[in-house]
Amino acid sequence: MFSINHNFAKLQGSYLFSEIARRVAAYKTQNPDKDIIPMGIGDVTRPLAHEVISSLIKSAEEMGKAETFRGYGPEQGYDFLRNKIAEADYKARGISVAPDEVFVSDGSKCDTGNIQEILGADCIVAVTDPVYPVYVDTNVMAGRAGDFDEKEKRYTNLVYLQTTAENGFEPPLPSGRVDVVYLCSPNNPTGTALTRAQLKKWVDWANKNGSLILFDGAYERFITQKEIPHSIYEIEGAKACAIEFRSFSKTAGFTGTRCAYTVVPKDLMGADPQGGKVSLNALWLRRHTTKFNGVSYFVQRAAESVYSPEGSRQVSRAIGYYLNNAKIILDGLENAGIRAWGGVNSPYVWLKTPGDMTSWEFFGLLLDRAGVVGTPGSGFGRAGEGYFRLTAFGTAENTRKAMLRVLDLKL
Ligand code: MLT
């Protein structure tokens, strides 16, 4: 019989958010009348902006006419969107990114997972702990993570950078060899963000060691503080050592619409087995054009509309709405005497579970006694144990209700 990719057997349980959905569904079956407030998965609730809807309708009409109908588009994205991204997300911030360094895709989850296909199997990979589980699981699938050590609760071949309240959520630079590091700022799950000075240390480290930074900026639009960079390319030297991932999911409510992009600078070189330099931009272009047929025309037009003055205003309103929810959560937790971080440059609030409760114990208590679903910190890694994540993506009404219920628990 044919064999399977045995690396899948090394994955730990099911994907975190599927596991939470499974537990909540089981709980609902047993408690059908309970009013449950979802604050677990970071999924948006505000409807798409009017500008986005108008653009979807207009592009659908174009597709219905022979003169404006379009078949396959360029796999790496239409020029109208790549130009807009290079202009509005980079040039306007004084960063030079060329349109052909931008690759449009259907999501950062896919991109952060797929990018490793262009990297050597022998690369030593570092992740923060806690971490967005996709970075770890996709490396496990690719056979780069080693085996899961049950006692250590970690994969043997990954380097873990503990990022907790003790070090102010600043991942420490690796002490040994690391070829590739995933950094996410503003961070999922902790909601904290790296300052320009902190990120500079990483860029300098990567350039000194010939390492690659995979920088996930999916939550960039939530940044409110001046000292937090919106792009890693704000840091000098970053174009020689970093790939940046951005998404319209959390920015413009596209979790169900699907559009994202990845910037692979042309300055970025990796080594071939003979030590020759190879352009990562060329490799990613080859991979993307071979395995992907592009994001639909409608969705790329919709993404483009987010950059119009009115589209941008509408999107900012939704971001403001979520940031206001984050403030409600932070205030509510403070009133309840619970320590919390994040929520200022991020839709995520990261809290310390009260007493000695484990993350999953707190998940059970919150669900059962308050009808609130959050995400256990330990689901993001060993160092997330004793922490818990709440998202601000719900409605303001539910967010207020949830925090009153937390207060009532008198923890
Ligand atoms: C999360 O809750 O962490 C996000 O929804 C994950 C994602 O964007 O895939």
What does this structure look like?
- The protein is an alpha/beta fold and 411 residues long.
- The chain contains 12 helices and 17 strands.
- The chain has 2 domains: 7-47 and 311-408, Aspartate Aminotransferase, domain 1 (Alpha-Beta Complex); 53-308, Aspartate Aminotransferase, domain 2 (3-Layer(aba) Sandwich).
- It has helices at residues 16-30, 50-63, 79-90, 108-114, 133-141, 196-209, 249-252, 280-291, 297-305, 309-335, 359-370, 396-408; strands at 37-38, 102-105, 125-129, 148-149, 154-155, 159-162, 180-184, 212-216, 242-247, 260-263, 269-271, 277-279, 340-342, 348-352, 372-373, 375-376, 387-391.
- A hairpin with a 5-residue loop joins strand 11 (269-271) and strand 12.
- The radius of gyration is 21 Å and the shape is globular.
- D-malate binds next to loops.
CATH fold label of the largest domain: Aspartate Aminotransferase, domain 2
Q: Catalogue the ligands.
A: D-malate
CATH architecture of the largest domain: 3-Layer(aba) Sandwich
- The radius of gyration over CA amounts to 21 Å
Summarize the structure.
This protein has helices spanning 16-30, 50-63, 79-90, 108-114, 133-141, 196-209, 249-252, 280-291, 297-305, 309-335, 359-370, 396-408, and strands at 37-38, 102-105, 125-129, 148-149, 154-155, 159-162, 180-184, 212-216, 242-247, 260-263, 269-271, 277-279, 340-342, 348-352, 372-373, 375-376, 387-391. With 411 residues, the protein is an alpha/beta fold. It folds into 2 domains: 7-47 and 311-408, Aspartate Aminotransferase, domain 1 (Alpha-Beta Complex), CATH 3.90.1150.10; 53-308, Aspartate Aminotransferase, domain 2.
